[in-house]
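If you are new to this repository, start here. Below is one unmodified record pulled from the training split, so you can see the exact layout before writing a loader.
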Amino acid sequence: MERPWLAQYDAGVPHEIEIPDVPVTALFDRTVTDYPQNVAVLFYGYRVPYRELRDLVHRFANALIGLGVRPGDRVALLLPNCPQFIIAYFGAWKAGAVVTPVNPLYTPKEIAYQLNDAGAETIITLSRFYPRVQAARGETPLRRVIVTTIREYMGVPTRWLYALLRERKAGDRVPIAPGDYRWTELIRQAPPTPPSVTVEPEDLALLQYTGGTTGVPKGAMLTHHNLVANITQARAWIQAVIREGQESILCVLPFFHLYGIAACLHLAILLGATMILLPRWDVNEVLKTIHRLRPTLFPGVPTMYIAINHHPDRKKYDLSSLRFCLSGAAPLPAEVQQEFERLSGCRMVQGYGMTEASPVTHLTPLVGETPLRSTGLPVPNTDARIVDVETGQQDLPPGQEGEIIVRGPQVMRGYWRMPTETANVLRDGWLHTGDIGYMDERGFFYVVDRKKDMIISGGAKVFPREVEEVLYQHPGVREVAIVGVPDPYWGEAVKAYIVPREGATLTEDEVTQFCKERLAAYKVPKYVEFRAELPKTLVGKVLRRMLREEARARG
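And here is the target side for that same chain:
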């Protein structure tokens, strides 16, 4: 097939790369050998060098084996961004297990669903989430519950102050039921020797559950080979600017989300970089952390960059340590990118992908120019096509919108125990993404919207992102989400949910008039609602689904 995007690669980026035939744990071991004294983890004053991290990983792996965990068993992680996540993540792999991260916002019912679907008999949970695990466990196959607290790997005096002032209030001081295990005791009693378990590249590594926005959550089966391929692809893309062994990554993207795992944890392990962990998103804490700890890389989502752009004290913080930032998980409005680059001085790289692809399939060049609003070029060893939405078989010419499909070594094995759903998205070696987009003549790809988010108003197609891009140009708009709401005449009508900038006074007439000057009449919002905030996932994606459901409930 023709690959026009190859001509747009930055100098030095290979068209094809050799994927190491090793599990992810081998990359971790290599980094420990190359950079044993480098700080791997920095968490509220606590520094863990790579050599010490390896010993903790081995201790935890041996502890799991001692508890009866065997190769292929599923181990669930109900943890925020903290050292325990990293230790348990690699420790489970060293024991030959399959990791399934669980969203810390899940209710007991949602936790029970994932544990049952994955068949997980072991879970590592933060103490504040333990009551939810207890509420769910009677309906699950759980046999082993390991409980840890957030302060166990904090530095002194932060740990003391937290225990004294916040631990009880935050719900971290809870009694543990007989038969459950405390993290500290397991780590202390287990040896730091390498486990005698063999892990193969084709072994299942992750059961990464999708968000469930299109029905029941599905576990994407990602092998060690899938993950190593994607790590290697990303490394090849950024090799011209990266300084192996010298970078530090601000890790505020949640690790339960594959974007956070890939862009923070996996990339850091590959580069011997320091992971500066923040357990939750708070724009004030993020700005202070960048100012004080000087990270060089900052993977985020558009809502994070929007929050920084609009922070009233943003100019008080020095962001100059940032060398480049990666935006993913949602389309990045051009105005947001331009403002953040002006504010920070760093180059923003936009990525595109999905959980089913480990997750990256496209990236924008780091050095060369990228057309505004493009989600980039297929990374090495990756093919992409635009096909018709109806059949998914007819290739469409440059500039014509259709469904994006991809193939490459990073594409999942399939959905866990869901052969029908697997067959729907994996066809003849191609992953059908469900995203609507197009490719230009040079090979740059553009995402217009998700198929499920497309609005059909009076038979005409309206893509929410196009309307959102227009409204982001309005000086009074801070955030916006466009959804389709029921309409007795049009079937669906366009509605705008807008968060105004601080101090701005916006009216519905002003918004619609602004759109009328820039959009076809059928794309102009029929309804406008102003909000103090928009509903988002923990990773920062705007939940259009919630807005649609709310509108339908109102009638």
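Two things worth knowing about this chain: The mean pLDDT is 92. The chain has two domains: 13-426, 454-554.
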